[in-house]
Amino acid sequence: MIGYWHKTLARQLGVLPQSFKLSQGSITVPRSSIWMWNIFDAITADTSAYYYNPDQHNSFAAYYGMLLFQAKAAPFTVPPLADSCQVSNAIIVYTSAKNQYAWDKTIEQLFAKLPLTPGIHFTADTVIQTITDPLLRPLSINNWGAIIVTRINVSVSCDFGRAIVFNARPYSVADPNNIFLNNYVPWFKPCVYKKITIQRLFGSAVLNPLDMKASKPALQMCTALVVADSISVRLKLQSVSKTILLRIARFLPVNPDVAITSSMVNKELVYTLTANTSSPAGNPILIGVLLMPVNLFY
């Protein structure tokens, strides 16, 4: 069901499911650019799970610093690039940030754009089949004959009053018009990063700790936050098995005695589990993030 919600929401957002990760729990967006930049700064090699947890990941700023200090300085000879695309110059720029790695967008810009965005409203239905053992034994060849295949009808109604896919990149060019970035200096050189990445692809750079090998998942970096405001989501599950719905209810913020009801449908007793969640307007929630392999960035 989580996979179905993830895929459906990605489709409604117009993003690729493989680049979209759900946030864990209900994360209220604070009015803090540092909080936002910390999420953008996180990188991970985990691409299998549906959820994203930046607290468990490495830092893109540290990764970029490692590339600068370990890459071979192979300068461009073209005059316009001779100064701007030197690794040595990029190292000076990087160290001048003094560990204050800003991105080119601030939380104030996110809060300013969110009220101007359209909402997302949809209802999606599917059927999930599950196999269970009535005696709750581990499924094995010995009790295969007792296994029951049970259908669960799933219906999701989603209403995001406002929703935005908010992009940001490492701060590379000074923005004098953004007063919220006045205390930060650009620390990232896109052309140097691209040059180092090309070196790595052709094996001419000397790297190790976080280097990407062909046999390992590519490191992923966050390129956008998915934020919604004025949220209302309703989940309805129907099954002839109350036991299955009781198991599912343990993972939802519901009281099973109230949330699960029963009715006769075509002379068959059917159980319904209903769960609702909501967040009032003015209390934006981080729904998820978009990821990109760091070797494809720039």
Question: Which helices and strands appear, and what pairs or packs with what?
Answer:
Layout lengths: L1 H12 L6 E9 L4 H9 E3 L6 E2 L5 E2 H11 L8 H4 L4 H10 L10 H7 L6 E13 L15 E20 L22 H12 L18 E20 L2 H8 L6 H4 E6 L2 E12 L5 E9 L5
Parallel strand pairs: 1-3
Antiparallel strand pairs: 1-10, 2-4, 2-7, 5-6, 6-7, 7-9, 7-10, 8-9
Key descriptive features of the protein:
298 residues; alpha+beta; 10-stranded mixed sheet; 10 strands
Distance N to C terminus: 35 Å
Tell me the radius of gyration.
24 Å
Largest sheet: 10 strands, mixed
- The total of helices stands at 9
Q: Based on DSSP secondary structure assignment, what is the total number of beta strands?
A: 10
What number is the mean pLDDT? 86
Query: Low-confidence runs (pLDDT<50, min 5 residues)?
Result: 204-215
What is the N-to-C succession of helices and strands?
HEHEEEHHHHEEHEHHEEE
* Fraction of residues in helix: 25-40%
Q: Label the overall shape.
A: elongated
Helix and strand content put the structural class at alpha+beta
Task: Determine the strand fraction and express it as a percent band.
Answer: 25-35%
Provide a quick synopsis of the model.
The protein is of the alpha+beta class.
Can you walk through the features of this model?
This protein has 298 residues and is an alpha+beta fold. The chain contains nine helices and ten strands. Strands 1, 2, 3, 4, 5, 6, 7, 8, 9 and 10 form a ten-stranded mixed beta sheet that branches. The longest helix has 12 residues, at 2-13. It starts with a helix and ends in a 5-residue tail after the last strand.
